[in-house]
Amino acid sequence: MPIDSALCTKTWYRYSWVRDNGHSKYVEKADKCDRFFLGDQWDPADKQKLTLVKRPALTVNKILPTVANVMGEQILNRAEISFRPRNQGDENTAETLAKLYKQISDANQLDWKRSDMFADGIIMSRGYLDVRLSFTQSMQGEVCITGVNSKNVMVDPDAEDYDPDTWNDVIITKWLTADDIAVLYNPEDAEILRNHEQSFFPFGYDSIYAFRDRFGDRTNPIYQGTYDESQVIRSMRVIERQHRILATQKHFVDVQTGDMRPIPDEFDRNRISMICDQFKMQVTTKLINRIRWTTICDNVRLHDDWGPYKHFTLVPYFPHFRRGKTLGLVENLLDPQELLNKVRSQELHIVNTTANSGWKVKRGTLANLTVEELEEKGAMTGLVVEVNGDPEKDLVKIQPNQVPQGLDRIGFKAEDSIKTISGVSDSAQGFDREDVAAKAIQEKRKAGSTNLVKPLDSLIRTDFILARNILDLVQEFYTEQRVLTITADRTTGGTEEFTINQITETGEILNDLTLGEYDVVISSVPQRETLEDSQFDQALSLKKEGVGITDKVLIQASRLMHKKEILADMEAAANSPQAQQQAQLQIEGLQAEIDKLRAEAASKNAEAPLKQAKAQKELAEAQKSEQAGPDPEIALKVRDQEFKESMQEREFELKQKEVADKQLLDEQKARAEAARKAVQPKATK
After folding, report:
1. Is the pLDDT of residue 112 over 90?
2. What's the whole-model pTM score?
3. Residues 645, 614: contact at Cβ < 8 Å?
4. pLDDT-based confidence at 163, cuts 50/70/90?
5. What is the domain count for the chain?
6. DSSP assignment of 18-68, as one string?
7. 315-373 pLDDT per residue, tens
8. 172 exposed, middle or buried (CB, 10 Å; 0-12, 13-18, 19+)?
9. Is the pLDDT of residue 527 over 60?
10. Which of 40, 122, 168, 202 is the most buried (most CB within 10 A)?
11. Which of 345, 380, 398 is the last residue of a domain?
């Protein structure tokens, strides 16, 4: 694009106004929080003064382990995204959308980028992801998720809501090389900018060069080298502004449901008419806030057109958000950390002065040393000083200052303030005393995790905005048939292929992602390794309790290496002729035992009438005896005999039922195995 001074000046003034009305102040705060997290916690001027007077400047970085504990909580909990059909949605399509989201997440390594965004939010109070289409790997376009430095994102100062859909504009500034501009935009603009010697705008350092985050620490904007390195030095500030403009746009209207979809600007009248006739739609013109993208570099217009997406590309994360004000976890730890560093440095200074507090010397007293040498070597062990005069009066060591009372308590209070403000206690970090009960430690950790509910809840809110934006991108641009692959089972490494927008022979479209509306459903689950440990422990406990869990389930839930090979060996051993023969022998043995029990049951059934007649006879004799007079011994024998017979019959019934249930289970396993083997040769062929 050519030089466009008018548009670039307008964009630059908006950039300058946003920068000077809140963003510069945020960058200072974010930079200080970042430095404290990394351990650079002393002001350079203060540290230089301490160095000149030879006083220590210690850094006891308590912020790093505190924030690392919070980041560990996030890493151990991941978000599972699913979709629920709402308006003309389909359950099968919702499942396909969930698989597609998993594929996009894996392709973009979203778990790691999400953790980086969370770290930016916790440390600098703001974190961002950028979601847009990329055509680097595929001409069809793929959803690309990238991390953005929070210091390079300038939010509308008038915005007061968490959701970017309520913002009027957002500016992303980044540093690029001339070659980057040639690839992303066009070579002509790159050559114009490559030959720029100074900025078109005032405060040119902000257009061409400024301090920023990177690996190096180069502060000179001029490259002092033999060759031109403009293709690798990122010295050109590119300003990308996404802003809303009130404009009219044509929309397709579904007559039956009233659903409206914007018509792309590239659709001509014939294409619009064809779609209306095919899908029974109408066209209406509506006044809306459209998103426009304007990208400049100095006074060169790189891009200026309507945005292709329904939302801004940025997805924000704010741990604590209150009416446009953002707050992380490090801001409130700055003062306690500075207090701790100063107290520890003061304690060390007092200890040092105790060893070398100084000397009072009468002029001309020293014989073998000069005053300068005494100052340098006065604290050395075994020092011998020759004095002209009385050593007790002419050479006196200055008594050092005593450690002020309560100085050490201030250090403990500073550490305690860090724990209290952050909500990360000794129990959360695993530093509890040895005499504390494990149950008490667990309860303390649960209570401490309550302090992290809000930052983690804000992360779920960000996950919702991210899933919503990806869903809109997919429904808008994933219109052609695609075959995608996801990892279905991480245990065995099995993959699953699925097709979206698949056109059948009859012209029907299966898994049509462009139709229907869907709600985003977010569920928090433990990290994969933690979840696997929990699943294995639960399965093992159930097996010990007698639940019929197979060895295959236990191995799948474990974290053994080479699980795939172990399961394959077990299956091969189970299908071997020896195993089948052994299973057949077991079935025959069970059948013989059942036949034996049935024979015993028949014998007992045959003996039952005889026992009954005998019992009746004994009862009659007992009645006669009662008429003659009660005989307690006979009555006791009769009751004892009846009790034994009833217990034998009960034990026999229980054993018969147990054997029958076991036989039924074995028969079901045998039928399932036979069915699997019947299908396996076909699959092999």
Report:
1. yes
2. 0.72
3. no
4. very high
5. 2
6. HIIIIIHHHHHHHHHHHHHHHT--S-HHHHHHHHHTT--------HHHHHH
7. 999 999 998 999 999 999 999 999 999 999 988 888 777 767 777 787 778 878 887 77
8. buried
9. no
10. 122
11. 398
Task: Extract the tokens encoding 303.
Answer: 């891009």
Strand-pair partners of 315: 129
Domain end among 376, 398, 420: 398
Cβ atoms within 10 Å of 189's Cβ, excluding its own? 21
The domain in which residue 670 lies consists of 602-684
CA distances from 181 to 24, 129, 258 (A): 26, 22, 43
Q: Are strands 300-306 and 281-297 parallel, antiparallel or unpaired?
A: antiparallel
CB-count burial class (<10 Å; 0-12, 13-18, 19+) for 122 = buried
CB-based contacts of 402, cutoff 8 Å, min separation 6: none
What would the pLDDT profile of 446-474 be if each residue is shown by its tens digit? 666 677 889 999 999 999 999 999 999 99
Residue among 345, 386, 341, 347 nearest 367 (CA): 386
Tell me, yes or no, whether 661 lies in a domain. Answer: yes
310 touches 476 (CB < 8 A): yes
Q: What angle do CA 48, 52, 55 make, to 5 degrees?
A: 90
541, containing H or E segment: helix 528-544
3-state secondary structure 65-111: HHHHHHHHHHHCEEEEEEEEEEECCCHHHHHHHHHHHHHHHHHCCHH
What does the block give as tokens for 612? 């009954």
Helix (H) or strand (E) holding 648: helix 632-684
Q: Which residue spans within 156-235 are E strands per DSSP? A: 169-176
